[in-house]
Amino acid sequence: MSKIYNFGAGPAKLPEEVYEIIRNELTNFENSGISLLETSHRTSTYMNLNVEVQNVVRRLLDVPANYKILFLAGGGLGQFAAVPLNLISRTGTADYVVTGAWSAKAAKEAKKYGKVNMVLPATDRYVDIPDQSTWNLDPNASYVHICTNETIHGVEFDFIPDTKGVPLVADMSSNFMSKKVDVSKFGVIYGGAQKNIGTSGVALVIVREDLLNQALPICPSLLDWTANFKMDSILNTPPMFAIYIMGRVLQWIERQGGLDAMAELATKKASLIYNIVEESNGFYYAPVAKNVRSKMNIPFRIGSEGNAALEKEFLKGAEALGLIQLKGHRDVGGIRASTHNAVTLEEVETLAKYMKDFYKTHSK
Ligand SMILES: *Cc1c(COP(=O)(O)O)cnc(C)c1O
Predict the structure, then answer these.
(1) What is the pTM of this model?
(2) What is the CA(31)–ligand 1 centre distance, in A?
(3) What single-letter DSSP state applies at residue 328?
(4) Which helix (DSSP H) or strand (DSSP E) does residue 115 occupy?
(5) Is the CB of 102 under 6 A from ligand 1?
(6) pLDDT tens by residue, 174-222
(7) Atom of ligand 1 at shortest range from CA of 79
(8) Which residue's CA is the closest to the ligand 1 atom numbered 14?
(9) Measured from the CB, is residue 195 less than 6 Å from ligand 1?
(10) What sequence ranges are listed for the domain Aminotransferase class V (predicted)?
């Protein structure tokens, strides 16, 4: 079979080296004679892995000692509920900065558990992040929620908002571990693993310890950060295999040179695509404002209004070359190239060449 180039947004590509490791470790984990898939989560074998994965998270992100690291079932959506369930009790109200489909979904989920203040004016065309001086922040909010990278709309924060002491909570599902982040500026960071750091089913949650112990009484134990922390993330049987894969991906990131190396690579890959868009005399069109263009998910159209026939032809031609999962999300249409951590520069160069060729043969 010829090579497949996977530009899917998530579950996204995993590093080839990690597949090799998983293959080798699948049936005999750490010389236990059995697979991790049939190992009890209460064994020292699993607890060693649990600590190993926590440690690599700490090293990569320089996580300060007063932050706890949790591995929780239920992915990103699970945490959309967990955030208000664990934090909104302080004042009963929370600020949501909606910059795309995912933060909109997070806000909608939070409304089930308290009052939600929309910080930005409502829109369905997410192409920018308004200047912070225009934000309608509520000083009484229990927390301020942002999504640092909108996977569908391709809008990525290029700054950390100043929330005047109100805990900042960030959904980093689709740009987790793609660059260095000053964890101390956040109250909570969370994300599903399947975009940049592993496979689906698990959320990585990093929570400042003073934000524990305030869950609403109705909070399910499964989503209760404090209950999970007290049990070292084995309150119930955790998604052990997904946590294991996350650990192996994070160790791979370390071997690549850590988050600075990931950031450099991400910039190179994204620039390749955006530059072709910019140099196409309007043939390709990227709707997002330049300063907040995502380095992980690059949505673009053919023509500013989107030429459906040409876009279809583009996608068909791409698939014929093995360039797959490039169709834009149904909410925005067009084309989306996701260039998550495991997508190589060579793979993006192949897409870039296809884009150039397609432009040459189809522009007047
Ligand atoms: C994919 C995604 C989610 C949802 O993750 P699930 O694990 O599918 O629940 C949440 N937020 C962002 C930014 C995402 O990209």
Answers:
(1) 0.98
(2) 35
(3) P
(4) strand 115-118
(5) yes
(6) 999 999 999 999 999 999 999 999 999 999 999 999 999 999 999 999 9
(7) 9
(8) 173
(9) yes
(10) 4-351
Q: Is 171 in the pocket of ligand 1 (CB under 6 A)?
A: yes
Domains of the chain by range and CATH?
16-256 (3.40.640.10), 257-362 (3.90.1150.10)
Q: Would you name the residues annotated as active-site residues?
A: 102, 171, 195
Q: Which residues pair with 206 in a beta bridge?
A: 69, 189
**What is the rounded CA–CA span in Å between residue 36 and residue 43?**
11
Q: What is the pLDDT of residues 232-272, one digit of tens each?
A: 999 999 999 999 999 999 999 999 999 999 999 999 999 99
| Ligand 1 nearest-atom number relative to CA 77 | 9
Residue 287 CA to ligand 1 center (angstroms) comes to 22
- Ligand 1 within 6 A of CB of 95: no
Measured between alpha carbons, how far is 186 from 165 in angstroms, rounded to an integer? 10
pLDDT in tens, 109-143: 999 999 999 999 999 899 999 999 999 999 999 99
Taking the CB of residue 46, how many other CB atoms lie within 10 A of it?
22
